[in-house]
NADH-quinone oxidoreductase subunit C
Amino acid sequence: MTDSKDRKESGGASEQPSERKQGAEQAEAAPEKGAEKEAAPKGEASEKREASKEKAAKPVEARPKGEGKKPPARPAARGARAAARRKKAEEPQEPSPKQPLLDAFVKRITEQAGKEAVEESYINRPNGHLPTIVVRNEKWRDVARLLREDETLAFDYLVNVTGVDYEDHMEVVYHFESLGHKHRLCVRVKTDRENPSVPSVTDIWSGANWDEREIYDLLGIQFPGHPNLKRILMPENWVGHPLRKDYEPADPDI
């Protein structure tokens, strides 16, 4: 009785370690399966990293010069645009609304100062359709008095005076306005470049005083009749006139 009982107990005791051993083996096998599952994503990540490295190492092909830019216009298109511009320039322009006013100015001046007093007249369209006349140099004093004193003209306000060097000749340009009649006029007086001279009008419009001095200083145009024609910007001992096209400074470093 005792032996059988002991054998049963010993048999029972001998089976327990084997069960624990199987459970341990299964437990050890389980992490291995999990490790296989985890290893797969890690392998994919490494492959992606390798692919990105290869892509970064691959040299970038240079874009051909001019690629992506707007192609130049074809000669035919350029020719068509040029022809359109010429056609537009050749088309007759509509009469200026200031043309009747300019005609009235010219008529009044030529009646009083002679037909030869006005060399040319036109409408300066870019400058607000400004009536413009070119007065002969020898007639400028007579025309100036007429512009100021004639009741139909009455240009009592001298807006400004400027000088221009056109290389083959020079001009003095006057802008007038009539405060009473509310009309404007531009007068241009030409002179040669060798001995440029335009009669002064400071006694007719006192505002011309400093303007004439400035033009004399920078362009060298003389204004006979000016009460104090001397430099106004440059020193009195300055050589030459800085705004002339042929001006060369005495000291190139200045």
User: Anything to note?
Assistant: Strands lie at 118-124, 130-135, 157-165, 170-177, 184-191. The helical segments are 2-57, 75-90, 99-113, 140-149, 208-219. The first strand starts at residue 118 and ends at 124.
